[in-house]
Specification:
This protein is mainly beta. The protein has one domain (8-268): Jelly Rolls (Sandwich). The chain is 13% helix and 33% strand. It is built from 2 helices and 15 strands. The strands form 2 sheets. Strands 1, 4, 5, 7, 11, 12, 13 and 15 form an 8-stranded antiparallel β-sheet that branches. The chain has a 7-stranded antiparallel β-sheet with strand order 2-3-6-14-8-9-10, with no helix packed on it.
């Protein structure tokens, strides 16, 4: 994982759940500081889609296909450092057959109140807020080329990322820079607000789904620091072979066998 100095807030990986597609997912483990994520609205179900270049390999994730489901963290966003003008980074692997102006992959704070009190990371087509939404006048951010960059992610496993350093928001598609905006500081709501997967929060309502996601989220990571452009590319490359070409990562047991083989080779020299 890049930027090992960073604290992990969200680290959710649904690719190894091994469920039958359509099975309901009540909760999923999170090794980050925000704790367990639980389904609070609608039905999140196991959903699988083929690797982009290998139809024989199905990759599973959290399916928000009914467009009205949401998962919340156990901890509040403020308690893990995501409030005010905090720096952060998000990386994700997602699959979405079609999407509208804005669909929230992950969000915290909430809609309502003064401008800039929400933080939502989106897969959406809107040129102004299709990538990041901050409520009201924002400022918000769209994907590059007037929003058209995001079109390459339709019905494909895609790596979407955002970084924020306190004054600049940068968004990336498949490890490649897409767009940025320099703006003044935000004051994202803290209090009892949680981190949500699959929707933003409407005026602090912990079960509302005002900006729902309609695809599948396989992997999601949120850090309390700003990843560099190289960090983002490294994060993409970590699992691109799996999501793009269907090449699975070595299992723990295989890695152990390879380690023993290498040890034996060294001993015989």
């Amino acid at each position: 994982m890049p930027a090992t100095h960073a604290a992990s807030i969200v680290s959710v990986d649904a690719t190894g759940l091994g469920l039958t597609d359509g099975d309901a997912i009540a909760s999923i483990a999170n090794s980050g500081s925000a704790g367990l994520f639980s389904t609070v609205t609608g039905s999140v179900t196991a959903a699988s889609h083929a690797a982009n270049n290998n139809a024989g390999v199905l990759i599973q994730g959290l399916g928000f296909n009914n467009g009205a489901a949401r998962m919340n963290s156990a901890a509040t966003s403020a308690s893990v450092g995501l409030s005010g003008n905090a720096s952060y980074s998000v990386t994700s692997w997602v699959w979405n057959p079609a999407f509208g102006n804005e669909e929230a992959i992950v969000a915290w704070g909430n809609r309502g109140g003064p401008d800039g009190t929400n933080a939502g990371f989106h897969q959406g087509t809107h040129a102004g807020f299709g990538a990041v939404g901050h409520w009201g006048g924002g400022p918000d951010v769209g994907w590059g080329n007037n929003g058209d960059d995001i079109d390459i992610t339709i019905a494909k496993w895609s790596h979407l990322s955002v970084t924020y350093d306190g004054s600049e928001t940068r968004v990336f598609i498949n490890g490649v820079f897409s767009n940025s905006e320099i703006h003044g500081p935000f004051n994202v709501h803290g209090g009892t607000n949680v981190i949500s997967i699959g929707s933003e929060s409407n005026n602090g309502n912990t079960t509302a789904t005002p900006i729902p996601y309609s695809g599948t989220i396989a992997q999601l990571q949120v850090w309390d620091t700003t990843l560099s452009d190289q960090d983002v590319l490294d994060n993409y490359n970590e699992r691109a072979a799996y999501f793009v070409d269907g090449i699975p990562e070595p299992t723990t047991s295989l890695l152990g066998v390879l380690g023993l083989m290498l040890f034996g080779l060294r001993r015989r020299r």
